[in-house]
Amino acid sequence: MSQLNSLLNITKTKKSRLEEVDFDNLQFGKNYADHMMYCDYIDGEWQKPVIAPYGPMSFEPSVKVFHYGQAVFEGMKAFKDDHDDVWLFRPEDNLNRINISSKRMAIPEFPKEYFMESLKTLMQLDKDWVKKGQGNSLYIRPFAIATEPGVSASESNQYRFMIITCPAKAYYSKPVKVLIAQDYSRSADGGVGYAKAAGNYGAQFYPTKLAKEKGLDQIIWTDANTHQYMEEAGTMNIFFRINDKLLTAPTNDRILDGITRRSIIQLAKDEGLDVEIDRVEVKRIIDAAKAGELKEIFGAGTAATIVAVEGFEYDDTYYDLPEMKDSFGMHFKKRLQDIQYNRAEDPHNWRFKI
Ligand SMILES: *Cc1c(COP(=O)(O)O)cnc(C)c1O
């Protein structure tokens, strides 16, 4: 393997765990592929990245990530086409974004060369973990954590950047019921909502648990100041369709700049669809629902590509959405997946071949 490159230190696994995995009954996040990458930041520099068998690591209990949550992550996927070629989707956008997230969390940026070489090598080593077929993928989780021991509340001077991967089937494919947030908030002006910072997600679990107790699956987050504008759904960006117009909120420091969102907007514009990128008032959506003009709501993110919303609760009233035959959500899901699985033209060069 050493001929692959000299940028990385590579230790291959002695025995693949592939045989142990029941790919017909995959539970997302339970099985990890044979190899992982880690790279330490010490003395002001990223050291040589290491590819090694996936496995536990040990840290002192005082390392800063455990106490202050100085951590960021990404989510991306690899797809296998019918000719057994493996493809990534806009991987440099994920690198750019983790560096934007890192900057906000005072974590040093990770070099592009290390990121891309590591990804390519991991995908080559673990290509048998990327299964062919619609809905199958290898989920890729890059992340960075503060690893300096010491409980003083200040930025760390040591970090570990890692990439782990796990096989995935279509994530949540069934339509979801959502709660439009009126009490809790996900992010605020000047905060970290635009960053994939670990703490953003931990803080959503409790309000989401309360929503689940009411029989809803997810929360549509609204702006923290007034709760009058729609922002995001769980860990997805959110789109609304009123008649034949597609609406989504503009990104800002409270809203994550999703790659799926960006891709859908581009495809919609390519098709000449009417797309409005502006603040989406809750009242406008409620009024449209009452008038029968609200045709669909869908979430967009790498994990599930697109998730249809079947209904939502607001002010203790539940609104059902109609079942759409010609759904925009399903149309864009298919268009995106056709590009991701190398079944269609890729006019914007989003695919990246391993
Ligand atoms: C990751 C994420 C998204 C979706 O981003 P993609 O790049 O499309 O995967 C949307 N909102 C939040 C809060 C996220 O964390």
UniProtKB/TrEMBL annotation:
Its cofactor is pyridoxal 5'-phosphate. CDD domains: BCAT_beta_family (cd01557). It catalyses: L-isoleucine + 2-oxoglutarate = (S)-3-methyl-2-oxopentanoate + L-glutamate; L-valine + 2-oxoglutarate = 3-methyl-2-oxobutanoate + L-glutamate; L-leucine + 2-oxoglutarate = 4-methyl-2-oxopentanoate + L-glutamate. The keyword Transferase applies. The modification N6-(pyridoxal phosphate)lysine is found at K196. GO terms for molecular function: L-isoleucine-2-oxoglutarate transaminase activity; L-leucine-2-oxoglutarate transaminase activity; L-valine-2-oxoglutarate transaminase activity. Pathway: Amino-acid biosynthesis; L-isoleucine biosynthesis; L-isoleucine from 2-oxobutanoate: step 4/4; Amino-acid biosynthesis; L-valine biosynthesis; L-valine from pyruvate: step 4/4; Amino-acid biosynthesis; L-leucine biosynthesis; L-leucine from 3-methyl-2-oxobutanoate: step 4/4. Its EC number is 2.6.1.42. Gene3D superfamilies: 3.30.470.10, D-amino Acid Aminotransferase, subunit A, domain 2. The keyword Amino-acid biosynthesis applies. Acts on leucine, isoleucine and valine. This is Branched-chain-amino-acid aminotransferase. It comes from Psychroflexus halocasei.
